[in-house]
Amino acid sequence: MLPLWVADMDFVSPPAVLQALHERVAHGVFGYGSDTKKLTEIIVERLFRLYGWRVTPEDIVYIPGVVPGFNLACLAYAEAGERVVVQTPVYPPLLKAPFETGRDGADIGFNRDTDGRFSVDWQAFESAMAAEARLFILCNPQNPLGRVFTRHELEKMAAICLKRGTVICSDEIHCDLVFAGHRHVPIASIDPEIAQNTVTLMAPSKTYNLAGLQCSFAVIQNEQLRKRFRAADKGLMAHLNLLGCTAAVAAYSQGQTWLDELLQYLAANRDVTVKFIHEHMPKIGVTAPEGTYLAWLDCTKDPALSRPYQFFLKQAHVALSDGRQFGAPGEGHVRLNFGCPRALLLEALERMRRALERNASK
Ligand SMILES: Cc1ncc(COP(=O)(O)O)c(C=O)c1O
Fold this sequence. Notes:
Layout (H helix, E strand, L loop, with lengths): L1 E2 L11 H13 L9 H15 L8 E4 L2 H12 L5 E5 L4 H9 L3 E5 L1 E3 L5 E3 L1 H9 L2 E7 L11 H14 L2 E5 L20 H4 L2 E5 L2 H4 L7 E5 L2 H10 L9 H13 L1 H25 L13 E5 L9 H9 L1 E2 L1 E2 L10 E5 L4 H19 L2
Parallel strand pairs: 1-12, 3-4, 3-7, 7-8, 8-9
Antiparallel strand pairs: 2-10, 5-6, 9-10, 11-14, 13-14
Helix pairs in contact: 1-10, 2-10, 3-4, 3-9, 5-6, 11-13, 12-13
């Protein structure tokens, strides 16, 4: 079975991260020692350097993961039964967050342009926010669609939320995984008024393959929103993982060359995937993702693929992610993770092609 599913990569983290972790482990004492001062300085400098976004150390709230972050946002900014809006298809824990926290989850779809690109369904967006939405959870770059929203799209979404008094929680965990020709814009960096209405969730985990080390952060510039976010955890939130903090410092301060190389490799994997599917599995729809290492495969045009996840699992021994977990528009779709060695990716694609061929000749 070739696993191209859970959104982490097969690659070893940057050498500087491994070295920093070895040194920290050699220290041998693992008490309450997560000193976040250095990491905070690095994050503040980084957000300004990359996005021209000025934040202060006080704006940063550490959390063990982005998933706890958006669940906390549901608890903090909507009361039980109040409306939280998400755009589907979307990362399953984000889709489930309103329900897990007893809020009223409302999901809106995307439009499909003629070139296959997904874009915001503005009519649905406007009416969802108009119906007393307390919170909008944005996923940018978008998992599973691979869209990197433009400044214009973000400005428009933010303006509607501001008009309706809807708080924005922006999951930007994939922010560093953006391909040439696209640019990540943190929605809160657009202007101070938007920043005052937004909680941004980020982490080095996707970028440097550190998800198991649990070190993430929220940027919350509005003091009231920050207080409510902190209060919502009711003492249940674990503090930052000591080794995660060590890894994050090393990754952010010494991992840029590794990341540049990674992005080139991922871009080539993306191109290989899209070309292979266009050439050898023409009934499957795919558009080149603008960011992330995830490709969203539309199998709805092939009658043989009514349950594509099961089909590829059983017939090709390739484990993708079942599109149905990503919300109603995910029916007939699968997500493919190309964050793996190219030989393995090609082997998986070839197995998928052969399974379809065998099925067609039955
Ligand atoms: C959009 C998105 N948010 C959050 C996560 C996971 O966040 P964490 O492991 O920090 O809880 C993922 C992982 O796939 C993701 O794709």
